[in-house]
Amino acid sequence: MTINSRIRALLVTFALLFITGCATQIPVNELTDRYAQPPSQFLQVAGMDIHVRDQGAADKPAIVMFHGIFSSLHTWEKWRPLLEKDYRLISLDLPNFGLTGPMPDKATSDEDYMTALDQVMEKLNVSEFYLVGNSLGGYFAYQYASRNPEKVKKLVMLDPAGYLFVPPAAMLMWGTPLVGRAGDYIEPPRFLFRDLLHRAYGNPEISTEEELERYATLLNREGNRKAGGRMIRRIRNDLGFDLSRLDQLSMPVLIMWGEDDGWIPVRHAYKFNEAIEGSELIIYPGVGHMPMEEIPEQSAQDLVTFLEK
To answer: Looking at residues 109-128, what average pLDDT do you find?
Structure first.
C-alpha cells in the first residue's frame, strides 16, 4: 500500500467512525483494578492524580523512567526483574497519558511537564537519580536533565524524539485540523493500533494482543484522546521539539537506538550523539523503537554497564 492510498484509507475510516458515533470514555476507577495493581500508587501533584510505581531496592540508587507517547509505565516492566535487586525503580504515567490522564487547563507545555515532574520527585523524596526516557519521554528526560543537573546523575535516552521526522500515517492524520479534531472524539479501529505497534518493533511478531489491548484501553481512559490530540497538535504547531538545551547536558549521557525504528529514523541517533558532547551511542541491529521491550536483557545490561562506570 502506498503512502497516498494509506492516507485515503485512514480518511475514509475516520469519516465512517465519526458518522457511526463517539467512543466510550472509561472512568479511571474502572481501570485501576486492571492496570494499577500493587505497587502502583497515585500521587496528588499539580492538580492530577499521577500513577506511579516505586519498586525494587529502596536503599539502592534510583532510576526514574519516562515512557513514550500514548504509552504508560507498563513499557518498563520487562526491565523490572533484571534491575530490581540493585536499583530503586520509579516509573510513572506521564501527564496526558495512561491512568494519570489529562493535565488541568489542557496544558501540554514543557514547563508544565517540568513542574509536575519536579513535584513527583519531591513527593517521592528523590533528590538524586538516574533518568531514563523513551521517545517523547526521552525528550522530556533531556529537558528535565538540562534544567536539573544537580539531580540527574546520568541520562539515558532510548530512541528519543527531537529532530524533525515524518510520523506514522495515523499520527500524521491526527495532527491535521479536521480529521485530527474528529480523532479526539472517536475510537480508532484496532488495525490502526496494530499497525502503530508493529511499526514500533523491529520484529512485529514480538507484539502481543495483550499489549494491543492495553494501549487501546488506556487511550479510552476518560480525557486521554483529547489530551493526546492536543499534544500532537502542540508538536505540529511548534514545528517539532526544542533542541536548544542539548548543549546544556553536563552529566554523562547514553543514547540507545533500534536500527529498525519505524517511528523515528536511526539517523537521528547520530545527530544526538554529535550534538551532546561526550555522549555514548549504542545501535541495536534488527530492533525497533522500544529496545527495553524488544531486547530487555541486552538493553538492561547495557544500561547497568553505563550506570556503573
So the answer is: 96
